[in-house]
Amino acid sequence: MSAHKFDEGRLMQLLVSPVVSEKATMVAEKHNVVTFKVLQNATKPEIKAAVELMFKVEVQGVNVVNTKGKTKRFGKSMGRRDNVRKAYVTLKAGQELSISGEAA
Predict the structure, then answer these.
(1) What pLDDT does residue 87 have?
(2) DSSP readout, 5-21?
(3) Residues above pLDDT 90, as percent of the chain
(4) What's the pTM value of the predicted model, to 2 decimals?
């Protein structure tokens, strides 16, 4: 990753929040993968650099999923949920990351 240089300020804003769900927990236990919500315009190299910078772990790979927001009713009016971009970050063997931020 030393070939690419990214703006550190952007990298700090790239990861919106960790995803805490049944599926994310199951994938984390089984395959050593951590799931984050990220900005809509985030790229895979940027996500990798951001996770390595913030959590001091080595990243093996990044997979990204774009989820379209659902249309929902609120009484008489129609509303729409936001679109979400999720990143599944695979950590290298021996690396561990807890949501609280400590690397082992």
Answers:
(1) 97
(2) ---HHHHHHHEEEE--S
(3) 70
(4) 0.84
Task: Give CA–CA dist 84/104, Å, rounded.
Answer: 29
Residue 77 has pLDDT above 60, yes or no: yes
Q: pLDDT (tens digit, 9 = 90+) per residue, 3-49?
A: 468 888 899 999 999 999 999 999 988 999 999 999 999 999 999 99
Distance CA 12, CA 31 (A): 25
Cα radius of gyration rounded to whole Å, the chain: 15
User: CA 73 to CA 96: how far, in whole Å?
Assistant: 41
- 68: closest CA among 81, 57, 79, 58? 81
What sign does the CA torsion over 85, 48, 51, 5 have? Answer: negative
Three state DSSP letters for 35-86: EEEECCCCCHHHHHHHHHHHHCCCEEEEEEEEECCCEEEECCEEEECCCEEE
| Token pair listed for 79 | 């509303």
